[in-house]
Amino acid sequence: MKKLLLFIASMLMTVSIMAADLKTSEPMKLAETTIKGVALSAPVEEAPSLSQFEVPIVEAIKLSEKNIPDGIENAQRTGIRKAPAATVKISGLVDASTIADNAVIELVGNANLFMDVSKTFKCISGDYALTLSGGNTLTLSNAEGYAINVSSVTISCHLVVQASYVAIAATSDITINNSVNATSTNTCIGTVNGTITINADVTATTSSSAAILNRGLENGGDIVINKGTVTATGGNTGIWAYGIAAGGNITAKEGTVIHASGGTGIYAETGNIHLAGEVTANANGDDGSGVYAQAGEVSLSTISISSSGVGISAYNGLTLNGVTITNTADTGLGTVNGTLTINADVTATTAKSAAILSRGRDQGGDIVINKGTVTATGGNTGIWAYGIAAGGNITAKEGTVIHASGGTGIYAETGNIHLAGEVTANANGDDGSGVYAQAGEVSLSTISISSSGVGISAYNGLTLNGVTITNTADTGLGTVNGTLTINADVTATTAKSAAILSRGRDQGGDIVINKGTVTATGGNTGIWAYGIAAGGNINIKSGKVVAKGGLKGLFAEKGTISITPPLIVITAAGGGISADGHTVVYDNGDPALRVVIMDPPVAGVVSLNSAPTPGNAVGFTLSGEIASAQTDNVWQISDDDVTWQDIVESPAGAPALDGVHQQRRAVTTLTYTPKESEMGKYLRVKVAAAGHTGYIYSPSRQIAKKICTDVPVVPTLTNINDKVYLSNAKTTQEYIIFNYSKEASSLTASDWNNAVTPESEVGFFELGGSSNANNTVFTRVKETPSTLASENVVEARLYIGTSVYLQDIELNISETVGYFQNINNELNCKVGDVIRCDAVPVPSNATNWYGISGSNWTVDNRNTGSPYGTFYEDADCTVPINTSTNYKTVYLKTLTEKNYLEVRILYYNSGIGYKSRAKEFNVTPDGYFPLLDYINGCSRTIAAGEKITGIEVSRRPFSGSVYGLTTEVSGEGIAPVVSFSLYETMTINAINATPGVYVYTPLQNGHPLNNNTTFTITVTDGKYGVDSLLLRENAITADPDEVLELVAQLMPTNSEAEITWTSSNTSVATVQNGIVTIAENAPIGAMATITANANGKSDECEITVSGEEYDLYVASTRVTSRNQDDILGDGTFSFDGMSTLTIKGDYTLNNSANLVRNTGIEGLYINIGQTCTISQGSDSYSTLFDLRKNTTIRGEQMTVNGNGVAFSTQGGMTLTLDSANLVVNAIMPFKGSGIADDNMNIINSNLEVNASGTAAIFSFTGGISLSNCYIKTPEGAIVANGAIEDGNGSQVRNLLIVPNPEKTEPELAFALSEATATVGETFIVPTLNNPNNLAITYYSENPMIAKVDAETGEVTPISAGTTTIIAYTDGNLYHMAGQVSYTLIVLKGSVSLSFTQNSVNVRIDDEEFVLPTLNNPQDVSVTYSSSNPAVATVLAISGDVTLVATGTTTITATFLGDKSYNEASASYDLIVTDSTSTDLNNISTLPNASSVQKILRNGQLIILRDGKTYNVMGQEL
């Protein structure tokens, strides 16, 4: 049988991960780096040959029967052939209960082992398909090799496996349908080809190699996890150290759970990794990865990774669909090509390299963040120190949140950066940037940046669409080319260079500020010390800009500065844009260092355009500067014209907030319609203007009903059933009725309280009335919510009765000469007209009517002598009436103008008493409009600058007109202009008026009105009390001796008040009229509050003296932003304001202070800028370097000569020497705290330490690590117990650590590049040239072709084919790792089969005979056959012979050939003769003889009787 090998090793491959091929000559580029990767193969020891377990099969043959076929007669389960206890050969369906415990099971055909009971066996092997089924547990325990080694296996029972080598091995499919718990020392579960399918819980644990492996050498190679929890724990070292590894794809469905750990957690060599379930992956090996698709793409759902190398590595795209957490030593997660897509929360943390990376080496390179919160923490140093880095574009959609930090926070090498979500980016590396698009453009929404270098850097344009905050050591934000566009609030602060810069190096260079508050604080010194600087133009369209720089606040190098009105420029000393447009200057022409550009206060006049009356919309008019602006308004109301509130209403269709109350909003419409309930209150409008600050109030107006100038319709009365009815009813009028004589002038308010109003104008409306009475009806236009009742009242009378006796009298008038004009229910005639006057009885047919006595006819209350008219008996007016004569008709001749000229008659009768009737009419020169007696409603209050139109004017007579009226005015100042319109309204124009009280006398035709009417207009100053006071800046950081201006604005802006200014700390800042002067010696951080006050309203601005104090001390001097460039004033020490302290010369400490004390700078770098010596004077014994935060020392050589402790650490911090060169001589050169797990890392450094006291380095209980360097002296010294100790465990005092030498190539070479070997023959291995005597490990790319001894390189050919033999070295201190190989062609070998005899004679009844033995030195599988089964039969597998009859037959052993050997055969002749002996003849006469059987085995006769076995001596076996 062929020998079964599972795993095929493949050549070591150099795999570029994440970091290769981004070659540029510019700084801050993604540089080239590689790590070793391996093909999915490894050398393993060859599986034990199945032939070593082969034993002859027990064959039961009845002596009386011939030609019985193999197998047990009548067996219900076929294929069981019992062998000695150690081995059982099976095929077909087999019950586990039929096999002994701890058996070795060999498959001789496809088999289904049914676990009808729980069993423990040693192992199962065979080149056939195995199925494990049933509901019980199978336990396999093999301390000598494989537990399962078959062609394919399906596991449907619970399986527990322990193996000293491979636990479960197959050459084809592995399917797991039930729980598996497997432990091995080599690959735990693996196959060469086909698919591993997992449908249940699996736990696979190995101390080396892969826990779960599908090589896919010739086909397949996929691992599919459909359900269950898979825990795969692989080895941590070696080229096969994986948790889960596949040559093809690895797929897990939703709902699955994977826990994978090893040197690399999950690895796909050529395929993709798509895991939709929950994943935990740990990589513990050098350069390992949590998840690694070497040539494919990766998509993941929820995953957590801890890795000593890379977290997630894909070659052709990475998609994260669930919560992802990586904590790694190298790159957090990334892809070499394709796109990295993030659709959920991601947290990636790495100590070095990039946290998130899309390399785009050959194509792709984009990063797309669709949703989620992404936290990317990259390394701070090195060429790959990024939070997020892409070779292409980086895009984040709205709603995403990004927190990125590293040497540079976010970096795109060739593409653009467009981030629409919220971003925080920190750059901690030298010359790092918060956001950096090296060749593209940048657009950002909300972002906050802290950077040791530049804040935001773009190459081809920068757009800021959200709140942006940068705090940087270098340029705050800028672009090399293109345009810098700002659309939101921006605060940029830098210690040097420009805060905002658009360089325009090749093109562009403009800065456009469209909106927002932009605060740009540049450095005070240097050639780029500007607040805002542009190579092109600076265009400020709106918003507010505060720009401050040491050279200039604003600077347009080749362009000009333009400011869109109404923006204004404010500096501390007046001025504006310079004549050349390049900058902003003071009045004296000097560049303004601090420039404020802001909206001006709103100015102009707002007036209500009409008097507010309920039910009528009132609007407002704008004049002055505000008239041309876009405005917003809010209507306000007050009970007392003092306390105001916004008018709020529920918008139409507004939903109820709580199911009952609708939401209410301020009324902001252009008009407002007062409500009747608001009568008597005061109304005003508050108006603000776009591009301006503040607001303006209109003058207030009291809400009152307007005068009614409408004319009522004279009622038409009719008698229906002795009731008075209206036949022309008007719903706009009210009616009252009296059944007795009454005149309109005598009506009272209580009379009108009884008035009625028709609901309809259709048909008749009943008024009531009395019989036998002259019913009088009065009517007027009724009062409405917005209008008073009309003053004009008209009347009509209707007599109801049957009496023929006089009940009342009426007076009718009409013109006989001339023509009455009826205007507004008033009769007008001209002077000289004759008026007929008729006295009429009521009823008209009264029999006792005789007229009115001449003495009772009066005009203007005079019977005679009236200057206005004379009564005559005739129409020609020739006979005056006689006082003693009764008249029914008289004629009145009018003599002069008179308004409301009254004609009256008086009658007395004892039956009815006194009755009187009168008529009025106006006598005018032309018979039309009479002159006015008076006007009403003209007295008003108006604000200066205001204009009111459409004021309704009440007048008498009603038929008169205000049109053409003029006025005389008295009062001091400029009075408003008053005019009257044809529409009986008045206009008051106070636009040019001055405050005061003005009395107006209206004139008609140049004369005062008949009753000398006057009215008063009061003009106010239009100014309001101060609502509030606003300082346009409330917090300013200022430099010592700086002068700046604060702008105070009163609200509303049309209020006036004196503003007073005070400072809370005049030793820091003084103020006068808003000009603030900072004291020259004001200390860093000192504060003063500047307060502006007006009429009890105030606002404050907090002034903070600029500068920063750092928690870092040099020789007792605290480091500040003022002294950081030369801390001690001698040029020796400087600090960059972020993280780097530079030492540039010798220094001797002569006091008891620490030389350097770091109490608060996390990640401090002490950079030795030049060779120097640090010493302590004889009286100084303090610690030189007292380090309490993580600190790194690097740079040129520094010699430290100390009298006590040179370097001490506290608080669990880490001291790192990175490429440092130190010579330290002290009593205690390096001392950890001993109690807080302080760490010391020594990287690539030269360190000479000489301790005169305790030890060179000690008490670093957190650990000491050496990287790329080694202890040169003393020899044998090691890191132990937080110190450096010698071989005896003593702490060393004198120590020399040096960098590892630069490694060279290993220079390995085989003598041949190709060799040929034959299976079964000795192969002479090509000589390996190893001049540097490096440790070598050998392996074969395909152990199924040839295996190689890992230590000696000795090759054993296995089967025909071609493989590669590889010699690999890890290198050593002086030489790099490397490999060399040769191609091995393996030919099939020859098999030497022979029998020990060519023929043998036996008797048919021989009790014992010996058959020839087969010589099979290659141990190949042969098949036996008999040429004449009628003489003897032979078992095909074992060669056991059964004698049948006399005669001759040839027994042949045939090998059909396989992958290793050519076919071969051997044979012998078997001659069977008659019996000549009767020794055993009597056996047939034994009881139950028919149950006795004889079998020949290896020439011995075996007797079976009653289930027992005997030899020929009768002894039971």
Q: Could you characterize the architecture of this molecule?
A:
- The chain is an all-beta fold and 1517 residues long.
- The protein is 0% helix and 48% strand.
- The protein has a 34-stranded parallel beta sheet that branches. The chain has a 21-stranded mixed beta sheet, with no helix packed on it. Strands 106-105-110-113-116-119-122 form a 7-stranded mixed beta sheet, with no helix packed on it.
- The longest helix has 4 residues.
- The N terminus is likely disordered.
Element layout with pairings:
Elements: E1 12-15, E2 35-38, E3 87-95, E4 104-114, E5 119-121, E6 123-133, E7 137-142, E8 148-155, E9 158-163, E10 168-170, E11 174-176, E12 180-184, E13 189-191, E14 195-198, E15 202-206, E16 212-214, E17 222-225, E18 229-233, E19 242-246, E20 250-252, E21 257-262, E22 264-268, E23 273-275, E24 278-283, E25 289-293, E26 298-300, E27 303-307, E28 310-320, E29 324-328, E30 333-342, E31 346-350, E32 356-358, E33 364-369, E34 373-377, E35 386-390, E36 394-396, E37 401-406, E38 408-412, E39 417-419, E40 422-427, E41 433-437, E42 442-444, E43 447-451, E44 454-464, E45 468-472, E46 477-486, E47 490-494, E48 500-502, E49 508-513, E50 517-521, E51 530-534, E52 538-540, E53 544-548, E54 552-556, E55 561-563, E56 568-570, E57 576-577, E58 584-585, E59 594-598, E60 605-608, E61 620-623, E62 631-638, E63 644-646, E64 648-649, E65 665-666, E66 682-689, E67 696-697, E68 701-702, E69 717-720, E70 723-726, E71 733-738, H1 749-752, E72 765-768, E73 773-781, E74 794-800, E75 808-817, E76 821-823, E77 826-830, E78 834-842, E79 852-853, ...
Parallel strand pairs: 3-4, 4-6, 5-7, 6-8, 7-9, 8-10, 8-11, 9-12, 10-13, 11-14, 12-15, 13-16, 14-17, 15-18, 16-19, 17-20, 18-21, 19-22, 20-23, 21-24, 22-25, 23-26, 24-27, 25-28, 26-28, 27-29, 28-30, 29-31, 30-32, 30-33, 31-34, 32-35, 33-36, 34-37, 35-38, 36-39, 37-40, 38-41, 39-42, 40-43, ...
Antiparallel strand pairs: 1-2, 53-59, 56-59, 57-58, 60-61, 62-63, 62-66, 64-65, 66-67, 66-68, 69-70, 70-72, 71-73, 73-74, 75-78, 76-77, 78-83, 79-82, 80-84, 81-83, 84-85, 86-89, 88-92, 90-93, 91-92, 93-94, 93-95, 96-99, 98-102, 100-103, 101-102, 103-104, 105-106, 105-110, 107-108, 121-127, 124-127, 125-126, 128-130, 131-134, ...
